[in-house]
């Protein structure tokens, strides 16, 4: 019909002028959402944790003899409230069809577990899926495009923790995902499995706690550096990146060692 034809012509004109513009400007294509780039959320509420855990039954192939992918996506505000820290853990991934993609999707999974019902990616700035996200400019990507911004699933098991400035645990914003879902896809975008985010806890963050994590930190050493055993005191020596977080543990051990010597 006429309207479609007009649109086609308009789109053609736009793409022709865009191409002309690009050939002048150079090779850089920056795609921005219709509502602009994603905005950094700086008021994420402290201590609020949302977790989405995969179901036991797979959506794509409910009778898969290997069972569903196992794992979860958990997110909480960064300590300064800017962005959220996201921890991803997946295992029992399919043995073919990767690298797998995963995204926050707009709508929750209904009771029947149908991943198609989660609709498209969380995209409050109306950026669209194509062209693919440029991970070096994450503000130009769909807010929900976690694998686009932070890397595809290419290992078994897949474990990752990263910060995302644009997804939020602050209710009321379009980028809020606590009432939504995430979906894992084959490389060809077929949906494998999905899960809903749910409020997991509103307690204080474990980052500053003196709890169980200390138990294993004596084995922690910095990336690439080896731990030199110390003589005399019996206290472990910490080097590199692990050192800061276990500093208090070291002094505790030091005190304990002194007590033993006395
Ligand atoms: C930029 O866009 C053009 C036209 O759509 C495409 O052919 C080209 O591959 C894109 N370049 C990059 C670096 O994405
Ligand atoms: C979006 O961000 C990119 C990269 O920083 C920038 O080049 C572009 O101008 C921004 N677009 C808008 C509409 O702010
Ligand atoms: C997508 O990939 C999966 C795994 O390789 C395959 O089983 C499925 O048939 C593919 N779907 C389409 C639409 O190509
Ligand atoms: C899932 O929902 C879609 C869209 O509503 C529907 O076409 C499809 O048949 C459903 N799939 C299953 C397995 O129920
Ligand atoms: C989720 O919450 C956001 C922000 O409060 C709201 O805009 C959106 O409509 C909600 N989505 C669903 C599926 O409830
Ligand atoms: C450290 O442990 C003590 C005793 O179990 C507890 O009262 C305190 O709240 C803990 N501190 C933090 C930051 O978790
Ligand atoms: C410490 O490490 C052991 C062996 O790796 C593990 O079984 C245990 O659960 C860990 N404990 C804590 C508190 O992380």
UniProtKB/TrEMBL annotation:
Subcellular location: Cell envelope; Secreted
Region spans: Disordered: 204-232
Domain of life according to the entry: Eukaryota
UniProt cross-references to InterPro entries, sorted A to Z: Cu-only_SOD, SOD-like_Cu/Zn_dom_sf
Reactions it catalyzes: 2 superoxide + 2 H(+) = H2O2 + O2
EC number of the protein: 1.15.1.1
Keywords, comma-separated and alphabetical: Antioxidant, Secreted, Signal
Protein name: superoxide dismutase
Organism: Lachnellula cervina
């Amino acid at each position: 019909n006429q309207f479609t034809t007009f649109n086609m012509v308009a789109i053609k004109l736009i793409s022709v002028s865009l191409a002309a513009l690009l050939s002048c400007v150079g090779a850089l294509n920056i795609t921005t959402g219709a509502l602009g780039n994603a905005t950094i959320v700086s008021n994420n509420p402290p201590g609020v944790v949302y977790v989405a855990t995969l179901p036991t039954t797979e959506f794509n192939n409910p009778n898969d003899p290997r069972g569903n992918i196992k794992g979860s996506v958990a997110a909480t505000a960064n300590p300064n409230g800017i962005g959220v820290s996201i921890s991803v853990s997946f295992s029992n991934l399919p043995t073919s069809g990767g690298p797998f993609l995963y995204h926050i999707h707009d709508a929750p999974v209904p009771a029947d577990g149908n991943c198609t019902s989660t609709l498209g990616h969380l995209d409050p700035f109306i950026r669209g899926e194509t062209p693919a996200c440029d991970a070096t400019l994450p503000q130009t990507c769909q807010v929900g495009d976690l694998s686009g911004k932070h890397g595809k699933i290419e290992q078994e098991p897949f474990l990752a923790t990263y910060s995302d400035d644009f997804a939020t645990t602050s209710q009321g914003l379009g980028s809020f995902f606590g009432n939504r879902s995430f979906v894992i896809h084959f490389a060809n975008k077929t949906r494998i499995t999905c899960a809903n985010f749910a409020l997991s806890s509103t307690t204080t963050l474990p980052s500053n706690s003196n709890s169980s994590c200390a138990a294993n930190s004596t084995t922690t050493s910095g990336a690439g550096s080896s731990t030199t055993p110390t003589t005399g005191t019996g206290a472990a020596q910490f080097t590199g990146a692990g050192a800061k977080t276990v500093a208090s543990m070291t002094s505790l051990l030091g005190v304990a060692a002194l007590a033993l010597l006395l």
